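>> received
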Amino acid sequence: MEYTFDANEIQCNGIGGAGYQQALKQSDLIESMILKVRNEVGIDLIWKMILEKDPNGDYHQGSRFNNADRVVDRLATELGRWAWSISMDDSLVASKVKNLLETITKEDAITIVVDAHRDCASADHWYTFEKDWD
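>> returned
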C-alpha cells in the first residue's frame, strides 16, 4: 500500500526529535513554502485561521510567530518526525521531506504552515512573560 500524505496529520509540537536534523537539510524549501503562504494568505488570515480552529487556545503573536526562521524550526521538526515515522530510516528523511515539499498542494501547504504558526503562537503565549517572573 502506498502512503498518501494527509496534512491534518501534521501537528507541530516543539523543536527537535527524530528526523529533525535530516529535515533541516531542506530548510530552504521549507522557508520558501512558508514565505509563499505568508505572502499569498497573509499573516492576519493565518492568525484568524488558528483562532477559528481553536478559539479557546492560548496563543500570542510574539517573536516566534512573526519570525519565519522560528516557523521553519517548528515545521522542520514535524516534517522530520513525519518522514521518519513512515520510513524509520534517517537516511531517507531528507529526501522524503524534499519530495513532499516539491509536490505538496496549495491547500496542504496552507494547512501545515498554519499549524507551524499555531505552535509558535502557543510557545509565544507560554513564554511571553518568562523573564518577568520577579
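>> The helical segments are 20-23, 27-41, 43-53, 63-66, 68-87, 90-103, 106-127.
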